[in-house]
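no rush on this but wanted to send it before i forget. theres a chain ive been looking at and ive put its sequence and its fold in token form underneath. please have a look and point out which stretches look like helix strand or loop to you. thanks a lot i owe you, the record is right below:
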Amino acid sequence: MADPLKALTQRAAKLGFTRPYIAALSNFSSKPGIGLAEAIDAGHHGSMAWLAETAFRRSHPQNLWPDAKSAVIFGMNYGPESDPLVTLTDAAVGTISVYARGRDYHDIMKGRLKELAGLLARDTGENVKVFVDTAPLMEKPLAMAAGLGWQGKHTNLVSREFGSWLFIGSILSAAELRPTSPELDHCGSCRACLDICPTNAFPAPYKLDARRCISYLTIEHAGPVDAALRAKMGNRIYGCDDCLAVCPWNKFAQIGRETKLAAREDLNAPALSDLATLGETEFRKRFAGSPIKRIGWLRFLRNVLYAIGNSDDLALKSVAKDYIDHPDAVVADSALWAYKRLTST
């Protein structure tokens, strides 16, 4: 049998991935560190009911696919060219999470991972399954077990080579592959990611309460955001990079090389006044191929109106006023809140 990793490693590099990292599933446990069951019991998953519904399958890869014996983990670097927090200082523009400023990474990675999975199946003679962040698979604990990085105090993966900026792709294989060495936690006494969070979404190190997380609130949460949190969202209209960007390990991070993941210029610092005037058709056109399209026009508009309310820009008051009678109750509520905030400025 051919070396199952030789061709895989060579092709992975050409496709923009890290080398393969391997975790043996016979002794894998996602229990240490970040506990999904504990988070669900505490209600930290918010309205993401699918996390609770798939908790058993998430608890071990073999609950998802009983034949799996190895997990082959790849990272794809999306390190930004500049500090992603710079736009937070300009209240007239919207701040979009780095990962969403380019093409949807799912679309880019899935096909390439399938190619790598085909090589692995060919060279091992065993079945494979491919995952990119859409199945009930605990990819971050697997990545740590395989050695790609470790889950930091903000619960995200951190790499000594790439810092916080890695997408994870996984291949489960029915073949027993030699595992790579697991990674250790290198956070030490650092609390930078915990202390910078504007909404105090971390009740303790390694624990995230999604109900207070701006990424969750702007992307997953469908209704109105708690009034006490709206002002803390600033001009973040899709996701939040604060806890990622402040990590000291980013000093070793490289700029992402994948051109399809590169930030679109019109999404680096889009004017709130322009975004608020997008109709549904214009929204779909502007964000075609972007992760932002997935939240839909109305939720996006809600986020933009919250940012307008936080802008202190009186020129935007009329924009907010135009949406107060919107037929969607959440949009109308967001507009009224924004208008009142600007009126009292």
User: Anything to note?
Assistant: The beta strands are 21-24, 70-77, 95-96, 128-131, 150-151, 157-158, 166-173, 236-238. The two ends are 72 Å apart (CA to CA). Residues 6-79+101-173 form one domain.
